[in-house]
C-alpha cells in the first residue's frame, strides 16, 4: 500500500468529504476553495470553523496548500495524485463526445499521417485542450536504398519501401566521399536491407560492418553508418509527435506565470528529440495513465498534467500513443474516457489498414 493510499484509508468520512470537495471545486474553477463555500454545500450541518480545522489538518498532511494568506485551499500535486488514484469518479464517455470524435476521425485519409492528424484535431476539439499523438514507426519492409551526391557537402538519401512509400532526406556526407564509395555503401545496405524493416536493419547493420570491414572501403563504411544513423534519427524525430490545440491552452490562461509555463511546455515539445520517452510512459499496460506535474518526465518543468493511452496494431503490439496535456486542473473524470476511446479507435483503424 502506498503512503497516499494509507492516508486516504485512515481519513474519517468528514476529512475525506472536505478533501474531495476542495479538489473538485478547484478542478471546476481553478480557484482556491474556502470554508464558507464548503459550508453551504456540505452534506451535513458543519460550521466554517470546523471545516477550517479539517483543511488545516489536510494542509499539514501535504494534501492541500493555501496560495495566499486568509485564502481558500488548493490541492498539492500529492493531493491531486491521491484524489486521482482513490476518489476520482470516471464517467462513461458521453454520446456527444463519442459522436464528435467519430465525425472528425473519418478514417478516409490516404495515409496514416493524415489519419493521425485527424485524431489530434478531434481530441483537441472535444477536450478544448492540447492533444498529443505519437505516430508509429514505419515498419514496412525496405525495397531499395540509394545515395545521390548533390554537392561536395550535400547528399540525398532515398529510401523506398515495399508498400511504395518513398522518403528522401538531405544530409552532409563524410568528408572525401566519392561517387564510387556512395555506390558501394548503397550496395552494401541493399544486400542487407531488402525485406527488412528499419528496426530490423538497425539490429544487423553494425554486426555486419564489423564482420565485413575488410570488404568495405573505409569511406563507404562511414557512409553506411551515417546513412543508417540518419534514418534512425528520423524515426525518433519530432515529426512523429503531432501536437494540436496549442491555442486552447494559451486562450484559457490569464496569469502571466501560467502563460510562461505553457510557453515553456511548447518550447520543450519543439526541442524534444527523444520522443521514444513519450511511448515509454505507457509501457506498464494498455490502459490510460495520468501523469501530474513533475511525475511527467517529459514536461516536468511546465506544471502540466498528461492523460495518455497507447494504441496497438493488429498484432496487439503497442506502436503509438494518444494523449491530452493541460494544466493540472484538468477535468480528469471526463478526459480519461475520451482518451481511452480515441486510443481504441486509432488501434482499430491502424489494424484495419494493415
Automatic annotation (TrEMBL):
Pfam families: HrcA. One of its GO terms (molecular function) is DNA binding. It comes from the Bacteria. InterPro entries: GAF-like_dom_sf (IPR029016), HrcA (IPR002571), HrcA_C (IPR021153), WH-like_DNA-bd_sf (IPR036388), WH_DNA-bd_sf (IPR036390), WHTH_transcript_rep_HrcA_IDD (IPR023120). GO terms for biological process: negative regulation of DNA-templated transcription. Keywords: Repressor, Stress response, Transcription, Transcription regulation. The keyword Nucleotide-binding does not apply. Residues 115-336 form the Heat-inducible transcription repressor HrcA C-terminal domain. Negative regulator of class I heat shock genes (grpE-dnaK-dnaJ and groELS operons). Prevents heat-shock induction of these operons. Belongs to the HrcA family. HAMAP family: HrcA. PANTHER family: HEAT-INDUCIBLE TRANSCRIPTION REPRESSOR HRCA. This is Heat-inducible transcription repressor HrcA.
Amino acid at each position: 500500500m502506498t503512503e497516499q493510499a494509507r492516508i486516504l484509508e485512515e481519513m474519517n468520512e468528514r476529512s475525506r468529504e472536505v478533501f474531495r470537495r476542495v479538489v473538485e471545486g478547484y478542478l471546476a474553477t481553478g480557484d482556491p476553495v474556502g470554508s464558507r463555500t464548503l459550508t453551504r454545500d456540505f452534506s451535513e450541518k458543519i460550521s466554517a470553523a470546523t471545516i477550517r480545522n479539517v483543511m488545516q489538518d489536510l494542509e499539514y498532511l501535504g494534501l492541500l496548500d493555501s496560495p495566499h494568506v486568509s485564502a481558500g485551499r488548493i490541492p498539492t500535486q500529492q493531493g491531486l495524485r491521491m484524489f486521482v488514484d482513490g476518489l476520482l469518479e470516471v464517467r462513461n464517455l458521453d454520446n456527444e463526445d463519442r459522436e464528435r470524435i467519430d465525425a472528425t476521425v473519418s478514417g478516409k485519409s490516404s495515409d496514416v499521417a493524415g489519419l493521425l492528424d485527424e485524431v489530434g484535431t478531434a481530441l483537441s476539439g472535444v477536450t478544448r485542450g492540447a492533444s498529443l499523438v505519437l505516430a508509429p514507426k514505419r515498419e514496412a519492409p525496405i525495397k531499395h536504398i540509394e545515395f545521390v551526391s548533390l554537392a561536395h557537402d550535400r547528399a540525398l538519401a532515398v529510401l523506398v519501401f515495399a508498400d511504395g512509400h518513398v522518403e528522401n532526406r538531405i544530409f552532409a556526407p563524410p568528408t572525401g566521399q566519392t561517387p564510387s564509395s556512395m555506390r558501394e555503401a548503397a550496395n552494401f545496405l541493399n544486400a542487407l536491407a531488402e525485406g527488412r524493416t528499419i528496426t530490423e536493419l538497425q539490429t544487423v547493420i553494425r554486426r555486419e560492418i564489423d564482420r565485413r570491414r575488410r570488404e568495405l572501403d573505409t569511406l563507404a563504411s562511414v557512409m553506411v553508418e551515417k546513412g543508417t544513423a540518419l534514418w534512425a534519427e528520423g524515426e525518433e524525430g519530432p515529426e512523429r509527435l503531432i501536437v494540436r490545440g496549442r491555442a486552447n491552452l494559451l486562450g484559457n490562461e490569464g496569469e502571466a506565470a501560467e502563460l510562461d509555463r505553457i510557453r515553456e511546455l511548447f518550447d520543450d515539445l519543439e526541442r524534444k528529440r527523444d520522443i521514444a520517452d513519450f511511448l515509454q510512459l505507457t509501457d506498464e499496460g494498455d490502459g490510460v495513465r495520468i501523469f501530474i506535474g513533475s511525475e511527467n518526465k517529459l514536461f516536468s518543468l511546465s506544471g502540466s498534467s498528461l492523460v495518455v493511452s497507447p494504441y496497438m496494431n493488429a498484432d496487439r503490439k503497442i506502436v503509438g500513443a494518444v494523449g491530452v496535456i493541460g494544466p493540472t486542473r484538468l477535468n480528469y473524470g471526463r478526459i480519461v474516457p475520451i482518451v481511452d476511446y480515441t486510443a481504441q479507435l486509432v488501434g482499430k483503424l491502424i489494424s484495419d489498414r494493415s
